[in-house]
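Researcher: Here's my situation. A collaborator sent me these components and asked whether they could plausibly form a single complex. I don't have experimental data yet, so a predicted model of the whole assembly would be a useful starting point for our discussion.
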Amino acid sequence: MYEKKIPKDFSCGISVLMEIIGGKWKSYLLFLISTGVRRPSELHRKVPTATSRVLNLQLKELEFHGIICKEIYPEVPPHVEYSLTAFGKSLMPVINAMDAWGSGYVGEFQQLMRQKSELYVVETGE
Amino acid sequence: MYEKKIPKDFSCGISVLMEIIGGKWKSYLLFLISTGVRRPSELHRKVPTATSRVLNLQLKELEFHGIICKEIYPEVPPHVEYSLTAFGKSLMPVINAMDAWGSGYVGEFQQLMRQKSELYVVETGE
DNA sequence: CCGAATCCAGTGCGATACTG
DNA sequence: CAGTATCGCACTGGATTCGG
């Protein structure tokens, strides 16, 4: 999972950033963690459409890249908490800028998708 | 190509942004166009590792989302130029922030990948 | 020089089921 | 509550080929 078989192209810094937050849920997880949601079950509650397996994978990658920190309390029942590292915090302004831009556009975006789909869609799925 | 069979999750604005610049070369193309590289053949020269087909696909998606504008001059030989739309320009600050952060980290990132790969890599890629 | 069609491999991620 | 293993599908994007 951690190995990269195909050489990635880092011609621009964005590729690096993508490598880190490019997963489907990573940015959202990052946001949640930054707002104080720390425990796996809590995160899962907030993102019920993703399975715990996937969340674990994404969290593990974030941890791997040094963005978040995982603390395990060897208790019964098990207790795990995630938190942003200093490095992860340095990323938050960028994340927030991205989120702000996207949020401002989401309405138009959905509309655009509907409009164009009338012109372009060939298979509506199935 | 334009249809989305699987419902995307736009719980945060970043997903929207990803939808727009999430392609492998899109951000780089955007950067190049913003710096004045306009013609397909020029872009292809700058990104020789991608085939023209792929570049065309990515450019088409950028155009689809209203980020760039394509002008066709019906000449012989054919002449095509891309340019940023006003909307595309509104995206540039975000792009630049992303690029800046990633660029600042690219060195450490490569190192990290090497270090960890000693621990995790199973196939160094044929 | 510009673009589209077909074919195909790698990967991400979702479902389900199981362990401590 | 937390984490992992196996399986399978859909999507991106590469190669190649063909048309204006």
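Model: Some features of this prediction you could bring to your collaborator: Chain B touches chain A through 56 residues (CB under 8 Å). Chain B is about 60% helix and 10% strand.
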